[in-house]
Amino acid sequence: MDNPYADEAAERWGGTDAWAESQRRTASYGEEDWRRCMAESGEISARLAALMRSGVAASSREATDLAEEHRLHISRWFYECTPEIHRGLGEMYVADPRFTATIDEAAPGLAEYLRAAILSNTAH
Length: 124
What we know:
Residues 1-24 are annotated as: Disordered. Residues 5-119 form the TipAS antibiotic-recognition domain. InterPro entries: TipA-like_antibiotic-bd, TipAS_dom. Pfam families: TipAS. By secondary structure, this protein is mostly helical. The protein has a single domain, classed as Orthogonal Bundle (Globin-like). 74% of the residues lie in helices and 0% in strands. It has helices at 6-13, 17-27, 31-53, 61-77, 83-95, 97-103, 110-122. Helix 3 packs antiparallel against helix 4 (61-77) and helix 4 (61-77) packs across helix 7. The chain is globular, with a radius of gyration of 14 Å. The N and C termini lie far apart (35 Å).
């Protein structure tokens, strides 16, 4: 899968175990694997966006369950995403405007909502 941010990601995380694991796993993925991975990710985002639009709090059981599903999706497809790593990702989703813009394509404000759900989920 073509990634325009591959060099930046390698520079930031290239020395970590998570990076090595992600590189090992994704090297074997074919087109169907990527299609399934992206479909699952999109489905989680769509469900989170629906909750957000309907006014369900990011701290609700439904939203935190989806945040956990998001964490497990990363663990399943890329690397073991611990709650600590997931919190860091949530912060990055709102701190880096590129992540925010990508996540907010599903619904404006979704990056912040996801971050809040992650923080609530990992606080337990």
